[in-house]
Amino acid sequence: MGKYIFVTGGVCSSLGKGLAAASIAKLLEGNLLNIRLIKIDPYINVDAGTMNPYQHGEVYVTDDGAETDLDLGNYARFTNCPLSRDNSITTGQIYQEIIKKEREGRFLGRTVQVIPHITDEIKQRIRRVGDEDGVDVTIIEIGGTVGDIESVPFLEAARQFIHDVGKANVVYIHLTLVPTVSNGELKTKPTQHSVKELLEIGIQPDILLCRAEEPLNDKLKQKISLFTNVSEEAVFSAYNVPSTIYEVPLIFAQQKIDRIILTKLNITSKATNKKIKQWQNLVHSYISASKSVKIGIVGKYLELHDSYKSIFEALVHGGMKNNARVELVKIDSEAIENKKDISDVFEKVQGILVPGGFGQRGIEGMICASHYARTHNLPYFGICLGMQVMVIEYARNVLALFGANSTEFEQQTTHPVISLLEEQQNIKALGGSMRLGRSPSFIQNGSKLNAIYKKPKIYERHRHRYEVANNYRDSLIAAGLIISATTVNRELVEAVEWDNHCWGIGVQFHPEFISKPDIPHPLFAHFIGACLGNV
Ligand code: GLN
After folding, report:
1. Which of 384, 390, 508 to mutate to test the pocket of ligand 1 (most atoms within 8 A of CB)?
2. What is the pLDDT of residues 126-140, one digit of tens each?
């Protein structure tokens, strides 16, 4: 039988439960354990696919095309856990399933209730992952904050787990905040109250992770321990890390969190420090890198850092590969739209990246950025929408197709160089209906892309509805645009490149989702290299 760790959060949101869960998973993997991670999002949406990035941050896409919470991205960057739609659970999915079963008559004669039907469904979904052959420990992160109405059924299911699998197989970890007040004092009261709230639900946490600006001293730990019934050695400091999120596993390792977890779960340690040592070296050499590189991100959801989380992280991974720290310069595409001269904006950066996005707002600014990069021989990386923008700009300014556009932004455009495929035109529902998930592409011989991937067939993840219109393909090629990758049947364009340019590549897929600090995606590594002038 598998073992289970529930991670809950208290006091307020955004304390970094996802990073904590991912970091703990990383340390357990360092003990040669086979770990799984599940994220529970208590909202009623079936998945994150239809949510605005400002509401939710980035939508992370798995190989099997699930549109999930961005914490799965953290899991992917820190660990080797396989991730699919099974690793993301929402209230919407649970109720959808139960209502479907009720309509099929599967509960005939009974009243369908939160306990036991909803909680059973939640537990079943968790155990489907955790009881799989060879899985040692499953970490379940329950989104939101204890006390939220939406998370009650999930916490109740977590509470019941002890009954189902036994106390020796369950650990509850609670992440709370220990704020600093104006005189610099750290206050434990919010933590005490938050644990009380958890106790009311029937969950006694085994381990506390205390978010604070600085490490907690022993006196504070003793106090927290006294009020919460959590033993002192199980009260840990999750203090602010100075440079990068990749330091979090290191500060946990220093405090030996994995030791306590393994003891509580009755697992004999097979600890090897090798993995964590390698991670440490990687992080330290990034922090102390002597070079740095400024990358301009021209996007439209920039006020919220989480909106482009995987892209920002993948750029950092590219920096790690090149021994250079990456400075992100966020450029609001709307703000540059009507600027007469944008050179002052772009002279400050060594490369431009235009990320994915939806809707017309800010598009013209992105097109300006693409034009600037192409005509100033500045490295340019277009991802999904960023590639479509590259094609629109090329059509307008090289092919002289004035007003060329995507039908996403201008339905009646005279030159729809980006448009919907016929099968997409008839789809009315927006949820889960895009081209989603992992699929293969063929790379054209002799292209830059070929030199970067060093193989003819690649697999990348997709999340888009619009495509380069095939009736413009020949004229784009004749005008010098390189189509450097296509779908295997050659029907759809997957990547384009500028000829006679230091580095101008656009990809219809999302390489950022599979990049890790220790295995940087080659496109990001190469792009950063080009920005440093190495290519
Ligand atoms: N809006 C574009 C499309 O649907 C691009 C999507 C994206 O960038 N993820 O095709």
Report:
1. 384
2. 999 999 999 999 999
209/195 Cα distance (integer angstroms): 12
Of 174, 462, 510, 526, the active-site residue reads 510
pTM of the model: 0.95
Q: Residue 479: in which H helix or E strand, if any?
A: none
Are 235 and 225 in contact, with CB atoms under 8 Å apart? yes
512: annotated active-site residue: yes
Residues in contact with ligand 1 (CB, 6 Å cut-off): 356-358, 384-385, 408, 463-466
Q: Angle of helix 363-375 relative to helix 385-397, nearest 10 degrees?
A: 70
Residue 352's alpha-carbon distances to 235, 296, 492, 494, 523, in angstroms, are 44, 5, 25, 20, 14
- The pLDDT tens digits of the residues spanning 225-255 come to 999 999 999 999 999 998 899 999 999 999 9
Q: How far is it, in rounded angstroms, from Cα 249 to Cα 5?
A: 17
Domains of the chain: 3-283 (3.40.50.300), 291-531 (3.40.50.880)
Residue whose CA is closest, atom 9 of ligand 1?
356
CA of 434 relative to ligand 1 center, distance in Å = 9
